Amino acid sequence: MDYAAIILNRLPLSRRNSGLGSLLQKANYLPKQQLGIIADAYAFSADAHQGQKRRSGDPYITHPVAVAAILADLRMDYQSLAAALMHDVIEDTPTAKHEIAAKFGAEIAALVDGVSKLDKLNFSSRTELQVESFRKMMLAMVQDIRVILIKLADRLHNMQTLDSMPGDKQQRIARETLEIYAPIANRLGINAVKTQLEDLGFRHAHPFRYRVLDKTVRRAEGNQKQFVKRISERLNNAMDNAGIKASVTGRKKHLYSIYRKMEAKKRSLGDIADVFGFRVVVDSVDECYRTLGIVHQLYKPMPGRFKDYIAIPRINGYQSLHTSLFGPNGMPIEVQIRTTEMDRIAERGIAAHWQYKDTDREVAAPEARAREWLASINEMQLSANSEEFMEHVKVDLFPDAVYVFTPRGDILRLPRGSTCVDFAYAVHTDVGNRCVAAKIDRRLVPLRTQIENGQTVEVITAKGAHPNPSWVNFVATAKARASIRQYLKNLRFNEALDLGRRLLDQALRDAGTPLRKISDQQMKALLDEFGLNNTNELFEQLGLGERLAPLVAKALLQSPVAAGTEPGKPTPIAIAGTEGLVVSYARCCHPIPGDAIMGYLSAGRGVVVHRNVCGNLGEYRKQPNKWIAVTWQAGIDREFSAEIRVDVDNRPGVLAEVAAHIADAGSNIEQVSIDEGQDDAATMLFSILVRDRRHLANVIRSLRRMSVVKKLTRTCT
User: Fold this and answer.
1) SS3 track for 143-207
2) What SS3 state is found at 701?
3) In the chain, what is the greatest distance between 2 CA atoms, to the nearest angstrom?
4) Which one of the listed residues 92, 308, 498, 692 is annotated catalytic?
5) The domain boundary residue, chosen from 324, 355, 386
6) For the chain, N or C: smaller number of CB within 10 Å?
7) Model confidence pLDDT, tens digit, residues 115-170
8) 595 pLDDT exceeds 70?
């Protein structure tokens, strides 16, 4: 029975021609009662949006109806379709969430709220609003993945009607679509939506490139129609002869996919092998592999161009066999072979879950991968601000994956370019935090080594180990980057706490009263005045240079001299070289132990140590309240960077000679640059590691003994 027609006939005539009829026909796979709820949701939304128009001039209700129709094409459940019809009522009308919940239930109301933008919060910039809005959407998606499916359908219809927007908005929305929404659709395996978003985004973000490529491909398509038809017929005949029931279709590759491949491989359109391809859909996995053999008998395969995504699915659950072949006259062609179920999942991805039972094994695979990804998103958001969170998610949205094995034989999927550290964090956060070395195929390798397909990776951990800050510079996965940054935040907090306590104690001692003699009442009064909750917050702000210790000490004592005490001489704070992230050493003058130094309080960076002879001191001394007295602690056991300029005779092998003398003096070279002058002279600038001034003096004496060295100076701005 056509329930959609029955429900439509019961509606007022004004609403039968509004697009609802077409929507109900598309959703005719749903039971009668659920179609009735969709019609009620339409009526609710139409009343809420009454009188509103889109920029194109169409009634606003046409947009939510189109969004619901896209979801109906994906055969989503009635709750998704009802929420799609009402997805803008909270944002654009006075309707509140509880009104939707009262009429349609809490689940549909939560879906509508999850898609709604953040329009009631105040942000410092439009960028911050977009980032926070995106964060809310992703976290709502963790609770119910249908939120993102509605949002993707919403974005797709907006892209289909983007021509009515001003040019600058078209560009911004198109770039956002290519950077965020199309990759999300790809990550969830919804190919039908992804390809439309990519091509529409490409058309508006790069209109000239789109027109040129579209014209070229259309011309090639016209020339190749007979070519495609001939190969399709040959494949069909071969399948019939083998007794395999198959559907063969020739296809043109999507323009954005062609563009991306041309851009990545730096090739012209004529060099792209799979502008035209063929899809063979069969009934079973066994027939997929039999079909592969038949295809390879018909056309010679290209070496190294076969991919088995059935045995090892892509990270979004996609399964298929891909092979590239030398077609007629050597023309390269691509053939994809998959089952009917794989083809359905390739087009609908996670959306296929709502049409079929949870027990469907092939549907469960992409859903499980999506849930795994969402769990990692939830973990990331706990330890990142909005912009970091968006950066992490962007990294995860481009999973051009490699597949590697653990020592037990389990397979891990990681983005291409992942390192051993990424692998360690993929196993477990604690494994990543404690990793000290790695083996690839039983050979020890550096932790920054990039892993490749098929390798077996083993991580070696140590109990007291912790992440190295430099790891952030080479890790490829969002999870690894978020975990390292979280550790560094905690480390920086602890270091800032210690430094802040020392700075305040020093400032108080200068006034004659050490920190231990400050009463709890004095400290509490100060915290109340500054609006801080505890002394840790105060010490952290002091350590990071956000507050100045002398001013805080003065506020504590209410006068330069505490009652009953005598002010002492300024006590320099001792620099031990182990303060880590809250004490840094100026690159303009490269201070090392033994140098006379001063400390400059820089907001957010803590203390920056300069040499007393630094040329920048004249500028900094305009802010005397930001300078603190510092000195070197005795017995520092670490190396510091120093910079020396060496003028030499320019002759073959001179760099090697100078480098050898530096090494013989017990120093390592961090960086070297050479400026070849005139008259066979050259200037070499070395950044070297030394322990202190005495060590640097030994290096300089060693170099000055060389006959090729004409002049040597230690640099300082």
Assistant:
1) HCCHHHHHHHHHHHHHHHCHHHCCHHHHHHHHHHHHHHHHHHHHHCCCHHHHHHHHHHHHHHHCH
2) helix
3) 107
4) 92
5) 355
6) N
7) 875 333 344 444 555 555 566 556 656 667 788 888 889 999 999 988 888 888 88
8) yes
* Predicted TM-score of the model (pTM): 0.53
pLDDT, residue 83, reads 92
80 and 354 in contact (C-beta within 8 Å)?
Answer: yes
What are the residues facing 609 on neighbouring strands? 585, 599
| 573 closest CA partner among 655, 515, 650 | 515
Strand order across the 583-585 sheet: 583-585, 606-611, 597-602, 627-628
pLDDT in tens, 46-58: 888 888 888 888 8
Which helix (H) or strand (E) element contains residue 642? strand 640-649
DSSP-based helix, strand, coil % in the chain, nearest 5: 55, 15, 30
545-564: per-residue pLDDT in tens? 677 777 688 778 754 334 44
Kindly state the tokens that stand for 16.
């039968």
Cα angle 322, 325, 327 (rounded to 5 degrees) comes to 140
128 as an active site residue: the answer is no
Q: Which residues contact 555 (CB under 8 A, 6 or more apart)?
A: 526, 529
> Are 35 and 152 contained in the same domain?
yes
Are 254 and 200 within one domain?
Answer: no
> Domain range holding 270?
220-355
At a CB cut-off of 8 Å and minimum separation 6, what does 57 contact? Answer: none
- Which range (77-81, 149-153, 676-680) has the least confidence? 676-680
**290 with 264: CB under 8 angstroms?**
no
Partnered with residue 668 across adjacent β-strands are: 689
Q: Is residue 135 part of a domain?
A: yes
- The number of domains in the chain is 5
Q: Is the pLDDT of residue 223 over 70?
A: no
Q: Which of 91, 391, 647, 649 does the annotation list as catalytic?
A: 91
92 is catalytic: yes
- Matching residue, tokens 């182990």: 578
Integer Cα distance of 310 and 342 in angstroms: 9
Those residues whose C-beta lies under 8 Å from the C-beta of residue 444, and which sit 6 or more positions away, are: 437, 438
Q: What single-letter amino acid sits at 367? A: E
